[in-house]
Amino acid sequence: MSVIDVTEKTFEAEVLKSSVPVVADVWAVWCGPCRIYSPVVEDVAKDYEGKIKFVKIDADENPELANKYGIMSIPTTLLFERGNLKAQSVGAVPKEVLKRWIEGNK
């Protein structure tokens, strides 16, 4: 399983009620840095398979989620654990930086 698309309808079940930590990539179709960052997130997701769930949230199609979590710039990466937002990072980063951020916040 790789990165799952999540919407406002599936967010609670996929993210807030997840039994494992969740990394959410908040993005939009028109966002250039998001297109560069997406393969990085997918690559990191393979390294954490079975330990951390990775999801994508389209900010344009899910404005209530973007507002709820104060998304001002994209891509934004969110880390959830047991239904709580633990950390937030703005901007596209290389694979090793993303992995260090996850390790430092979980």
Q: If you had to describe this structure to a student in words, what would you say it looks like?
A:
This protein has helices at residues 11-16, 32-47, 63-68, 95-105; strands at 4-6, 22-27, 53-58, 76-81, 84-90. With 106 residues, it is α/β, with parallel strands linked by helices. It has a single domain, classed as Glutaredoxin, CATH 3.40.30.10. The protein has a five-stranded mixed beta sheet. Strand 4 (76-81) and strand 5 form a beta hairpin. The model has no long low-confidence stretch (mean pLDDT 96).
Shape: globular
Contiguous runs where pLDDT drops below 50 for at least 5 residues: none
- The end-to-end distance, rounded to whole angstroms, is 21 Å
The CATH homologous superfamily is called Glutaredoxin
Q: Please name the CATH architecture.
A: 3-Layer(aba) Sandwich
Count of DSSP strands? 5
Oligomerization status of the protein chains: single chain
**CATH class category label:** Alpha Beta
What is the structural class?
alpha/beta
Give the biggest beta sheet.
5 strands, mixed
Mean pLDDT: 96
